[in-house]
Amino acid sequence: MRAVAFLVLSTLTLAAYAQSGVGVDIDEVVDNRVTYGDLVGNLELRVKLKGTGLDKASAARIVVKEARDDRGNALTPSKLGNDFTPRDYNSGMLQMFVSTPARAASSVTLKGTIELFVPTRDPNAVVKIDKALAKLDAPLSHAKLKSAKLSITPLSPTGYAERMKSRKLDDAKIAELRAEGKKQGVPDKEIEMAIEMAKAFDSMDSAPPDGSVILAGTKSDFDRIFRVEVLGADGKPIDTNSRSTSSRGEDTLMTLQPSNTPPANAALLLYLLTAKSQMSFPFELKVNLP
Hints:
Blueprint: E1 4-10, E2 15-17, E3 23-36, E4 39-50, E5 59-69, E6 85-86, E7 93-99, E8 107-117, E9 126-129, H1 143-148, E10 153-154, H2 157-167, H3 171-183, H4 188-204, E11 213-218, H5 219-222, E12 225-231, E13 240-248, E14 251-258, E15 267-272, E16 278-288
Antiparallel strand pairs: 1-3, 2-3, 3-4, 4-7, 5-6, 5-8, 8-16, 9-15, 10-11, 11-14, 12-15, 13-14
Helix pairs in contact: 3-4
């Protein structure tokens, strides 16, 4: 078996600004060209935002809509890095990923959008639900959630066990996964790999640690939630050791593990990605490859 790997790190000073005054500085280019069986590399761009009004944004992301190298090859944007990232994470660094350019290419041009989450722009973007954990296995009740058509349910240990049981793969669910994969044009080999991975996750399912907060809903609903905080008796967010989200089709579970067991009267604070709370700026960027 032969493997060819090529890794180049280069710090650049290129900058691109949208007409809005918000743009990106290229901080680092990682041209990772790997050929090893089914494993292939990608082009990673690590960037920082630059412009006005960024101090008001709680999170940001960059979505690449089109990429092409100077040899005329279209590069496929990856969904990696497409989630909103808190502005205080990693010194504000964001990432973009596209497929590997031709070896003879010397530059890449990218087009897309810089997206900011600014919850202060919309009072409906922040929802505080008092005594949210007092009534488990029932959807959270709040006018803002109803207006946003969001349904989120905190689960008891029994409710969690029942939900996990219903998510177990059987022949019917596997057939649905295959059909959905074919509908989306996913190669058969990738579909089978995804099914095997799902089976492996099934075998790893276990009860969550004591004190965990588990929320259930649809993937579509959780896609519209930027963050969930558990508030202590003092009304301040409890430090959270880990956050995870798992989906099986549309069925989605979010698991929060606070550093301390939440009090019985704990409130939840939800940050919603509403239309008014988001700002979008186009960008076009040419990057010289190292």
